[in-house]
Write a structure and sequence with these properties.
The complex is a heterodimer of chains A (174) and B (167). Chain A has 174 residues and is mostly helical. Chain A is built from eight helices and two strands. Chain A has helices at residues 2-28, 33-55, 61-87, 89-92, 94-104, 112-116, 121-134, 153-167; strands spanning 138-141, 144-147. The chains are: A mainly alpha (174), B mainly alpha (167).
Chain lengths: 174, 167
């Protein structure tokens, strides 16, 4: 019973998260998506925890806490893999943008000038700066940019990515 | 809880094997995609252990589906996080945040000067060729059959999100 409840609650939460994100992108646009994503994730997480707490029925509090912990873990893993693996890629990946540009050129292909004409270095970096400002990760004061906090989840996640880049650097005999 | 422990046991084994194989993949001549097969082996291990646990008497909840879903989605979450670093290099967002964390304050010009053309454009086009999504004939780039399949999916997905076709 607990097994079915956990799977059903996590799957319903993920389904609502996916639908919620699609509605957010369609109505608010991409710029505010990071903020909407955080709100939606936390809102659904709290809703799922409260629902599970009452749905599991008579049970020791310590067992209920374990069930809630497993739900948080499962919903986090589901939404995280969806955001990073599927949702974000067609929106933010420069590789995907190049692929779609080339696809738009059809069978005749494109040279480097045509492939990159809509994407200058400055436009790609400018979009990312704008996204970080609207999501509240960095602050702009005049022409100066700084982190809002050195300890936000996003900044720490970034440090972890740097560690992974080192870790995944394959040993090359050359 | 035995189910959950078995899930994390197989997840730990799969991640450790994946990191080790990836570290030596050039020496061993293994492609990046082939390294992912360790997670399929881990899934088989996780399912077999779960089925074995179903036949055993043990304390606590019986959570066979939760444990398998945890293995699948934690593996996917790991691969989603590790995907960028595995493909090599910092993303522009990572580089902006790292530079601001190290140097405190930067002007717009200083941020833009962190990036070269090759870093932003060249490396990405090169990785598309390596993934065999596109190919280069003389000076012209073409989408491969594999690239077309992937692009069709992204175009449909962008439509669902109410975005332009892209490109």
């Amino acid at each position: 019973m607990i097994d079915y409840l956990l799977v059903a609650t996590s799957s319903i939460s993920l389904f609502m998260f996916v639908i919620g994100l699609i509605i957010c992108v369609r109505t608010k646009g991409q710029a505010e998506i990071l903020l909407s994503m955080k709100g939606l994730f936390i809102g659904l997480l709290v809703l799922g925890c409260i629902s599970l707490w009452y749905m599991v029925g008579d049970m020791r509090v310590s067992d209920k806490v374990v069930v809630i912990f497993l739900y948080i873990l499962l919903f986090w893993a589901m939404s995280f893999s969806y955001i990073l693996g599927l949702f974000g890629m067609p929106l933010t990946s420069t590789r995907v943008q190049f692929l779609l540009t080339l696809m738009a050129h059809g069978g005749k292909g494109a040279d480097i000038q045509n492939l990159t004409k809509d994407y200058s270095r400055d436009s790609i970096i400018g979009i990312r700066l704008h996204r970080l400002i609207t999501s509240g990760e960095i602050i702009q004061k005049g022409n100066k940019y700084m982190l809002k906090s050195r300890w936000t989840y996003f900044v720490l996640h970034n440090e972890f990515l740097l560690f992974l880049i080192e870790l995944f650097q394959p040993l090359d005999p050359k | 809880m035995a189910y959950i422990f078995s899930s994390f046991f197989w997840l730990g084994i799969s991640i450790a094997a994946h990191v080790a194989i990836n570290k030596f993949r050039i020496l061993l001549g293994i492609s990046l995609v082939s390294t992912l097969s360790v997670f399929l082996m881990g899934l088989v291990g996780s399912v077999v252990t779960t089925m074995w646990l179903l036949g055993q008497a043990h304390a606590g909840f019986s959570l066979p589906y939760t444990s398998i879903l945890l293995y699948v989605f934690c593996s996917l979450a790991y691969l989603s996080i590790a995907g960028g670093p595995m493909l090599g290099g910092e993303s522009p967002t990572t580089k902006i945040l790292t530079s601001l964390r190290r140097r405190g304050t930067l002007t717009k010009e200083q941020i833009f000067s962190l990036f070269t053309y090759d870093e932003v454009m060249g490396k990405r086009i090169e990785s598309l060729i390596q993934s065999q999504w596109i190919l280069k004939k003389n000076t012209i780039y073409f989408v491969t059959k594999r690239g077309k399949t992937i692009a069709s999916f992204f175009i449909a997905y962008r439509r669902l999100l109410g975005l332009s076709q892209g490109g």
